[in-house]
Amino acid sequence: MGEMINVDGTEFWVERRGRGPDVLLVAGLSDPAEAWQSQLDGLSDRYRVTAFDNRGAGRTPLPEEPLSVPMMADDAAALLRALQVPAAHVAGFSGGSLIAQELALNHPGLVRSLVLMSTWARLDAYVRSMMGFWHWMAERAPSERAMLEAFFLWIYTPRAHADGTVDQIIEEALAFPHPQSVEAFQRQLAPFRTHDTLDRLAEITAPTLVLAGELDIAAPPRLGRAVAEGIPGAVFEVLPGEAHQPFQEVPDLFNARVDAFWREVEAQG
């Protein structure tokens, strides 16, 4: 079970599991902490795993002022300090990977290592247009179910659509008692769409693993490769046959890869 934690006057929903080296999981657009369930369950035998709801997702309120990626990175930093975590292995997915980039740039002492899944540093015209479509799709879709059915075409593999995985995820999302509003979806999406750290990536000093799904439409491997090329010493890997959210579709594979990376970092001292 999680709990609400007051961080600089804002109540954030936080879930923590296990003991060992600290890991902070940063979710992407719309996703609450529950998106990381397979990591909370599968990695907590070796790590102290923390997941939380970003502003405007799940149980954490949307602020009155505009959201920005640096603001959300400052939230993550303040949360780590509130939890008395001196430094953590930080894993961010999609929009959460952008937050993780800013966290490493603006609060480097808190970041032991970085895992950037389905990431980008600067969108190209194709993906920027795609996200523009998501913005108005959220308010024009005839129902929440229709919105999810359409949105998930960009998110999950054809395999997951065929074998019933996506249907199950949709049912779970519809049953979730803290759904994200259209306004919150659009206000989270806006800063992710305009995010640009391409010219600052060389300032990241944390050991970094960049992962991309071969079939990812929402954050194509070409964007992740550009991130890895910009960060000194970063390792770039493409997961064959996977799409935007392999940490959900193939959690054992994802967990094993990040565990191996974190073990390498820990061994280097």
Automatic annotation (TrEMBL):
Annotated ranges, domain AB hydrolase-1: 23-244
InterPro entries: AB_hydrolase, AB_hydrolase_1, AB_hydrolase_fold
Pfam family of the protein (one): Abhydrolase_1
One of the protein's GO biological processes: glycerolipid catabolic process
Keywords, comma-separated and alphabetical: Hydrolase
GO function term, MF aspect, one: triacylglycerol lipase activity
Identification of the protein by name: Alpha/beta hydrolase fold protein
